[in-house]
């Protein structure tokens, strides 16, 4: 497969702030690619330059083999963009909104109605967009970005403001898009979302890519300790520390948490002592990788 997106030494500054700093990566055709990072890391700015919405200060971008800037009309029917902040035509219903977008691309009204159903908005079809909840507006924005069946889809925080059930339903929809051969580029704050959906992820901070690989490879490379949670009352902290292979023990809300890099040894010891009832085992996650690279401090 060829590259759907090629980015080389991309840079963008706002005054003294270096929002994007010498970023380079490729996204293969049909790949589900994630861009992860804290607030202000440069994710949205990078996406907007690839989409042709913002002019880079330096570097080159090829989107489906063509430069997106200056604004390239030939690319518009081939890409779908869901922005972080939804903007709709005023005083239109959800159905009128997506029908209007569909007509701009020569897409039939029936196809637009099908997309309303796919994002669960049939019962809100006659509701004006300003009366939709935040989550409903987000789903309508995604449907509008996909109604013309684009080759490459850009989704900027697509599941923000969605409840857990709506998020899971949207994951299924996005997985289906990718399975059909479309290239999807996603920014998200949800590490579980990236682990489930993305073939590869780039973790960015301060405008630079810190790591780029598959979620599984990033987790393996971290060599994070396994966390084994033992139900309350099973054993004391001193007894847990005495088990071979246990590095440290903390008391959590659901019991004692044993950290180890030898989970098989520890679980075998717990089995011998008949302390396996209610045991929970958690290996390293993409969130562990993210926090190890970007830090744990809160960023507004």
From TrEMBL:
Pfam families: ABC_tran (PF00005). GO terms for cellular component: plasma membrane. It is found in: Cell membrane. Residues 5-231 form the ABC transporter domain. GO terms for molecular function: ATP binding; ATP hydrolysis activity. CDD domains: ABC_DR_subfamily_A. SMART domains: AAA. The keyword ATP-binding applies. Keywords: Antibiotic resistance, ATP-binding, Cell membrane, Membrane, Nucleotide-binding, Translocase, Transport. The keyword Transport applies. GO terms for biological process: response to antibiotic. It is a peripheral membrane protein. It comes from the Bacteria. Belongs to the ABC transporter superfamily. PANTHER family: ABC TRANSPORTER ATP-BINDING PROTEIN, ABC TRANSPORTER ATP-BINDING PROTEIN NATA. This is ABC transporter ATP-binding protein.
């Amino acid at each position: 497969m060829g590259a759907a997106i090629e980015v080389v030494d991309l840079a963008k500054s706002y005054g003294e702030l270096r929002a994007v700093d010498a970023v380079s990566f490729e996204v293969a055709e049909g790949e589900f690619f994630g861009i992860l990072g804290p607030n202000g890391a440069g994710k949205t700015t990078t996406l907007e330059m690839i989409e042709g919405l913002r002019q880079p200060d330096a570097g080159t971008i090829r989107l489906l083999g063509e430069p997106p800037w200056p604004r390239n009309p030939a690319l518009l029917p081939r890409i779908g963009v869901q922005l972080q902040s939804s903007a709709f035509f005023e005083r239109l219903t959800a159905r009128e909104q997506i029908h209007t977008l569909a007509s701009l691309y020569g897409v039939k009204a029936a196809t637009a109605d099908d997309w309303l159903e796919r994002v669960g908005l049939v019962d809100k079809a006659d509701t004006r967009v300003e009366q939709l909840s935040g989550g409903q507006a987000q789903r309508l924005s995604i449907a509008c970005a996909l109604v013309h069946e684009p080759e490459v889809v850009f989704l900027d925080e697509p599941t923000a403001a969605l409840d857990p059930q709506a998020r899971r339903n949207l994951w299924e929809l996005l997985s289906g898009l990718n399975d059909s051969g479309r290239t999807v580029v996603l920014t998200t704050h949800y590490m579980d979302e990236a682990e489930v959906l993305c073939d590869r992820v780039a973790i960015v901070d301060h405008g630079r890519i810190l790591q780029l690989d598959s979620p599984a490879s990033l987790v393996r490379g971290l060599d994070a300790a396994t966390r084994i949670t033992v139900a309350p009352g099973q054993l004391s902290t001193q007894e847990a520390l005495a088990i071979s292979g246990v590095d440290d023990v903390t008391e959590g809300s659901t019991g004692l948490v044993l950290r180890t890099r030898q989970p098989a040894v520890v679980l075998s010891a717990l089995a011998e002592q008949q302390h396996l009832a209610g045991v929970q085992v958690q290996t390293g996650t993409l969130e562990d990788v993210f926090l190890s690279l970007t830090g744990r401090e809160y960023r507004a």
